[in-house]
């Protein structure tokens, strides 16, 4: 499923909200009014892009000829940046797009995606470029795969709390565990990884 630009996501949200409120889709001019544009050419371009990406279907010759696909009725979450599955690295917080998943997947509590960089978790079937669905939470159980901050730098690892230390364990024998002794450095859990999504092309 292709990602949306922020403007395409805005158009899709306008269409979805209108259908939910009134039971029928908005006209091009109604969409344009909510976008703050006077013409319909820009709106048409966004609708064309959404149709090509599979989020909706349009019926020519009808002012309200827009039908949401099952993808369009999914839950769209932001991709808020990247996280290293490797050495510690400063977190990059910059919404690069959105990704839509089936609403049933929201039962896991995931609210945002991070794009994975690096290969330290390949034996957990997490590869560079994957999207990690993250459920924000400040704690973790042993063996959970988490996004953790250590001294202000982020990493994606398997979590272990031991007697007087925390171990962030990679799933690749080429990498060493990150071990934080009690009192050495501040460790905070950003969230638990509850899903991995991969684009095949």
UniProtKB/TrEMBL annotation:
Q: Which reactions does this protein catalyse?
A: Hydrolysis of Ala-|-Gly bond in repressor LexA
- According to the entry, every stretch annotated as the LexA repressor DNA-binding domain falls at 1-65
Q: Where is the active site?
A: 120 (for autocatalytic cleavage activity), 157 (for autocatalytic cleavage activity)
Q: Which GO terms describe its molecular function?
A: serine-type endopeptidase activity
Q: Which residues form the Peptidase S24/S26A/S26B/S26C domain?
A: 78-194
The protein's matches in Pfam families, at most eight in alphabetical order, are given as:
LexA_DNA_bind (PF01726), Peptidase_S24 (PF00717)
This protein's record includes keyword Hydrolase:
yes
Q: What is stated as this protein's family in its record? A: Belongs to the peptidase S24 family.
Protein task = Represses a number of genes involved in the response to DNA damage (SOS response), including recA and lexA. In the presence of single-stranded DNA, RecA interacts with LexA causing an autocatalytic cleavage which disrupts the DNA-binding part of LexA, leading to derepression of the SOS regulon and eventually DNA repair.
Name the NCBIfam families on file. Answer: lexA
What quaternary structure, including any partners, is listed in this protein's UniProt entry? Homodimer.
Name the chain's protein: LexA repressor
Q: Which organism is it from?
A: Geomonas subterranea
């Amino acid at each position: 499923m292709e990602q949306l630009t922020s403007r395409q996501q805005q158009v899709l949200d306008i269409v979805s909200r209108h259908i939910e409120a009134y039971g029928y889709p908005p006209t091009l001019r109604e969409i344009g009014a909510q976008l703050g544009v006077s013409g319909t050419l820009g709106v048409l371009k966004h609708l064309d892009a959404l149709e090509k990406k599979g989020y909706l279907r349009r019926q020519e010759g009808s002012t309200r000829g827009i039908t949401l696909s099952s993808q369009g009725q999914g839950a769209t979450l932001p991709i808020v940046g990247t996280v290293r599955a490797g050495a510690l690295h400063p977190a990059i917080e910059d919404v690069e797009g959105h990704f839509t998943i089936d609403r049933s997947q929201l039962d896991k509590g995931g609210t945002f995606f991070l794009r994975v960089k690096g290969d330290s978790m390949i034996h957990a079937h997490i590869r560079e470029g994957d999207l990690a669905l993250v459920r924000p939470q400040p704690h973790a159980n042993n063996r959970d795969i988490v996004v953790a901050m250590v001294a202000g730098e982020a990493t994606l690892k398997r979590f272990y709390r031991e007697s007087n230390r925390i171990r962030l364990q990679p799933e690749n024998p080429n990498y060493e565990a990150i071990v934080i002794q009690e009192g050495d450095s501040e460790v905070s859990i950003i969230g638990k990884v509850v899903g991995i999504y991969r684009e095949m092309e």
